[in-house]
Amino acid sequence: MDNLLPLKDAAQQFGVKLDRLRRAAWDGRLMARLVGNQWLVEPEEVARFLRDAGRRPAPAPVSVAKRGDGMARIIAVAVPKGGTGKTTTTLNLGAALAAQGQRVLLVDFDPQGNLTQSLGLRPGDLEHTAYTAIKHFLTSFEPQLERAVLSTPVGVDLVPTSARLNLANDELAVAIQREFVLQKLLAPLVSSYDIILIDTLPYLGVLVVNALVAAQEVLVPLQSEYLATESVALMMDQVQLMRRSGLNPELRVLGILLTMVDQRTVIHREAVEYARRVFGNRVPIFEAMVKRSVRFPESQASHTSILAYDPEGDGARAYRLLAEEVLHGTA
Ligand SMILES: Nc1ncnc2c1ncn2[C@@H]1O[C@H](COP(=O)(O)OP(=O)(O)O)[C@@H](O)[C@H]1O
Ligand SMILES: [Mg+2]
């Protein structure tokens, strides 16, 4: 591993555009290591990539990817950091997509159950949850997730969870094909929905891997205040791993969503510019940007979406625009 080159040098050596190698590194077609903000790559790997690229057609742009076969698009909302707006985004993007006539299923796959609670349910009261479906599957291999599906007042369906989902960590660890359980559970439901959003937990492990196997796309929220670029970079590495390991060769980053942006301060403006510089050339950053607003925790405490709670506000507008971008691509 001591013949690692910075991507810039590799581009020069092979006479190709740096941007091409960067994009390939970010979406996992080129195996490279991210050290700080710099990609390092082995020359043999660049040679392999260029050889293979000559044989395979370039992938279609991510944001306009459509399945068009009556099967739901499955999007995991994921980044290995807490408090970045994953749950808020799952709920409000889901509500905004439903308002556009999409049939939406949300899956609460975080044992904390914040999504479940935000929609007014008490996890302890529920007979059927994501966890009970996993448990049943591990003993019977029957996918019975539909038992757990509930309708909600914000126009989306929900697979709720309880804290018992924590137990699935250990139970899945010894299970056959442990990475594929959520994919198998969702399979009977994909023809009933247009979009399935999976809310994930803030650290990488078997539950997140299950979400990343089930999904075709990953939406990565980046909290602007603390400039959580490191966790976004980690997420990109994980996507790359999913592809290279063969667990999900087609997995793509749909885009990065800037959340909790406070445009009044210089720090936040700089943060946004920095994010565009560091990530913007490599994966799409959504035009939609979610500003910090107390309306979000308020809407969640009222067990509703930002669209219902403050329909004319910036927050509702941002999630409506995000829904447009998810459906039709960024302009
Ligand atoms: N744009 C925002 N402005 C202000 N508060 C927000 C915003 N988005 C989310 N929050 C609040 O921040 C907290 C963490 O958000 P959450 O979506 O639960 O993050 P995660 O799921 O990544 O842990 C929640 O209390 C939520 O209500
Ligand atoms: Mg959460």
UniProtKB/TrEMBL annotation:
Coiled coil: none annotated. It holds the Pfam family AAA_31. Residues 73-252 form the AAA domain. InterPro entries: AAA_dom (IPR025669), DNA_Partitioning_ATPase (IPR050678), P-loop_NTPase (IPR027417). CDD domains: ParAB_family. Gene3D superfamilies: P-loop containing nucleotide triphosphate hydrolases. It comes from the Bacteria. Belongs to the ParA family. This is Cobyrinic acid ac-diamide synthase. It comes from Oscillochloris trichoides DG-6. The lineage of its organism: Bacteria, Bacillati, Chloroflexota, Chloroflexia, Chloroflexales.
